Amino acid sequence: MLQDYKINDILFLDIETVPAFESYDLQGERLQKLWDKKADRIKTAEDESPQDLYPRAGIYAEFGKIVCISVAFFHQEQLRVKSFYGDDEKQLLIEFKDLLDKYFNKSHHLLCGHNAKEFDFPYIARRMLIHRILIPKILDLSGKKPWEVNHLDTMQLWKFGDYKNYTSLDLLTTLFDIPTPKDDIDGSDVWRVYWQDKDLERIKTYCEKDTITVVRLFQAFRGEDSIGNEDVFYSK
Fold it and tell me: Which residues, other chains included, contact 209 with Cβ-Cβ below 8 Å and sequence gap of 6+?
């Protein structure tokens, strides 16, 4: 039961990703050819070109990069929020790894996100491998039994074993009367805000809102009241 988990043992997180390059033409010849093949498989209309689809490259770890990881954890009765963000993906991944290695390295610690088992957790691990960063124990699934994987996913918790469809965080916040994190931008805007507007701070704020919302949704699943804004503290 969810009530059996100690909430202070859980690190809640969300990531924001973008295409690795500002435009399709900057990828380099080898990546362009591989993206062309990928685009051919994901297109939904015959007239969609690889260039048209390139803004979607950020959702694939092979063609995108992480620009922000926001985390939240409880310290006593307070929720502490911190973001690792910037243009240097390797550096933010190293800093995030340092946090995990130092504070979330025990068998009772858990990671929690929304759709994180299919997106956030594997995306982080793959990008770490690409940068030759040793994957932290809590993210490394190699050789682990299913019950040894310390990952929680609010989307999967909502599904109760029903794997037929995706349920958005925005929809669940509406159902549980939790303030929406999509009051400024949503995931489809991140590539533009990063590459065209050059506004990382706006992306960080959006990512932090998503992370706090995951916390509140998890609390709702446990039948608890949501943490109030006055008990949320942001770390630099």
Answer: 181, 183
In degrees and rounded to multiples of 5, residue 107 shows phi and psi of -65, -20
Give the integer Cα–Cα distance in Å for 187 and 191.
Answer: 8
Divide the 236 residues of the chain into consecutive groups of 10 and give the mean pLDDT of each group: 90 98 95 96 91 96 98 94 98 98 94 97 98 96 88 94 85 93 86 96 96 97 94 91
Q: Which two tokens stand for residue 84?
A: 């690792």
Strands (E), 86-139: 110-113
Q: What is the pLDDT of residue 1?
A: 78
- Would you state the CATH architecture of domain 2-20+63-228? 2-Layer Sandwich (3.30)
- Reported as type and span, the H/E element at residue 93 is helix 89-103
CA nearest neighbour of 58 among 22, 97, 93:
22
Estimate the crossing angle of helix 120-130 against helix 89-103, to 10 degrees.
Answer: 110
Query: 140-157: buried (b, 16+ CB within 10 Å) or exposed (e) per residue?
Result: eeeeeeeeebbbbbbbbe
Domain boundaries, the chain: 2-20+63-228
